[in-house]
Amino acid sequence: MDRRSRAAVTGSYDYIIVGSGIAGLYAAHLAREHGSVLVLTKGSIDDCNTRWAQGGIAAPIGPGDSPESHLLDTIEAGAGLVDEDAARILTSEAGARIRDLVRLGVPFDTLHGEIALAREGAHSVPRVLHAGGDSTGAHIELTLSSIARQEGITVLEHTIATEIVGGRRKKEVGRRVEGIRALNTQTGETTEYSSRFLALATGGAGQMYRYSTNPDVATGDGIALAYRAGAEVTDMEFVQFHPTALRMPGVQPFLISEAIRGEGGILRDVNGVRFMPDIDERAELAPRDVVARAIRERMHATASDHVLLDVTHLDAGVVMTRFPQIYRFCLDHSLDITREPIPVSPAAHYTMGGIRTNPWGETTLRGLYACGECACTGVHGANRLASNSLLETVVFARRVIDRTRSSPDSAAPDSPEPRELSEPHPTETPALTREAVQSLMWNEVGIVRHGESLRHAVAALSAWQAALPSVSDRPSQELADLLTCSRLVAEAALHREESRGAHFRTDFPEPREEWRRHVVFRKAAPATR
Ligand SMILES: Cc1cc2nc3c(=O)[nH]c(=O)nc-3n(C[C@H](O)[C@H](O)[C@H](O)COP(=O)(O)OP(=O)(O)OC[C@H]3O[C@@H](n4cnc5c(N)ncnc54)[C@H](O)[C@@H]3O)c2cc1C
Question: How many angstroms separate the Cα of 242 from the Cα of each of 27, 248, 348, 351?
Answer without folding.
Answer: 28, 16, 6, 11
